Amino acid sequence: MGQTRRGIQVLDWLSIIAGYGFALLLIRGIFLLITRGFGADPSHAPFVVLGYLLFLALCVYLFNLGRRALLLAKGFPQPKPRFGWGRILLGSIFLYSNAVRHFHLIPARFKPLQPSNDVEAVSMNITEGVLFIGCLLLIFSGIWRGLRRQTQANVSV
């Protein structure tokens, strides 16, 4: 077995281990959430649950990515995923974290950055808008990838 194939297998196993590790952190977080409650404001509960669902999606994605790559390295070809799930997940996580920070949906444990003058305030708003558009483009490109494959499959049949 060559070094390249061995390196790919190591990365595959690291992806599976990361998926399991994040899942254990998620279970711990859910346990702490149940035992301690949602804190002082129960209106934050839907946003906390949405964050946990995104974290669960990340765990499943990492595990599935490693599993598929290991099967491919062993010589069992797998069909390619229909949609760009990594792009969709990454864009969703960035949008969620930006919305939580911007609208103060979940109380932060740290003080966010504050602009010291008007130029910094404008540049922070522009950067936030560019990141928002970039995240939307990531999500739509992942969806478009799946829709494009579906139309190409229909044409070739």
Explain this structure.
The structure is a single chain. By secondary structure, this protein is mainly alpha-helical. It folds into 2 domains: 1-78; 81-157, no CATH class. It is built from 4 helices and no strands. It has helices at 3-36, 45-73, 85-103, 118-156. The model has no long low-confidence stretch (mean pLDDT 83).
Fraction in helix: over 70%
**What is the tally of beta strands?**
0
Cα-based radius of gyration, to the nearest Å:
20 Å
Number of domains: 2
Distance between the termini: 38 Å
Write down the overall mean pLDDT. 83
Structural class: mainly alpha
Strand residues, percent: under 5%
Strand count, sense and barrel status of the largest sheet are: none
The stretches of 5 or more residues where confidence is low (pLDDT under 50) are: none
How many DSSP helices?
4
What's the SSE pattern?
HHHH
Principal-axis shape = globular
